User: Fold this.
Amino acid sequence: MQSGMIYADHCATTKLCDEAMEAMLPFLRGSYGNPSQPYFFGRESRKAISEAREVIASCIHAEPEEIVFTSGGTESDNWVIKGTEGDVITTPIEHHAVLNSCEDIRRFGRNTFFIPVDGEGTADIRKLNAQAFDKAGLVSVMFANNELGTIEPVREITEAAHAKGLLFHTDAVQAVGHLPIDVKALNVDLLSASAHKFQGPKGAGFLYIRKGSRLRSFVTGGAQESGRRAGTENTAGIVGMAAALRKSCEQMEQARKHLTALEQIITQALDSAGTDYVRNGSAQHLPGVLNLSFRGKQGESLLHRMDLKGICISTGSACDSKNTELSHVLKAISLPEEYALGTVRISLGAENTVQEAQTIADALIEIC
Ligand code: PLP
Assistant:
């Protein structure tokens, strides 16, 4: 990181942790054997992948054979939407990896229905039009929203999906490593995750596929991952992801407390300065995520002025940061326009300090 820079965009990506780096190095240098090869050099990689699978499974209370490695959240989400049958029931505030996959399957005659969300971005399955269930095969609702931080009522929606005999998938890219996740207790069928959101490497992720769930292969070719996902495994990425997830899960509670304290520093400073803003999202939110709308301001201009002060924040989701139009998430929660246009997302990480939170607040107050 550049000296003096304050990084507060952890929903976009995170710094690789030392544990992940250490775990990866042997597989980037000496142990580069192909895990599919039967000789010792290949077996070494295979063993590392199998150990990583066990670590990851235990972090989300799954069985190791229910974890399939992918290239990240986007691939996992695409796989689920494109590998299932029937119409899809989802929310209007999903990541584009889900929404654009739903667009793609329209050419196969598969439609998408949206569960209404309230002003905090919480989905309410009871408000879904009953016709949506007629030809549906899948319900896909994110665990936590990447712009607002809102945690969705996943358990309740899973029950509703199962009551109709549908598969339930959750895009848990923002939640894994940050919130306790027990796939058995939640009873979800499919769950997507991405390593770079919890201090693992970019280009590595996984899909949890509950034993017995019907899902067609998406990436086809060789017989890797028990024939479910083809392609030579990203050994270093997988091993790094496991090390990062283990660390995140061990330190989760400590991180939650720290991040909650930092959030309060920022909101209290803004309140004391009489800043005209609203905080979006639900009280049930990802620790450290603040989605703030400043009245009469431009989010993009706030971002650039913060950047000039060496502070990295976002105007919405990472993919939307070049777009001056309101994000699909802000549109869905129907914020009044005079606030909506001035929206920024601050997403803090465990390494952010009290001093940095104060500096972020001071900078926002000064700019506003
Ligand atoms: N889903 C959500 C909720 C995300 O926030 C992101 C990334 O921002 C993705 C999916 C895509 O994940 P990846 O960057 O691993 O492809």
Observations:
- The CA atoms of residues 7 and 289 lie 13 Å apart.
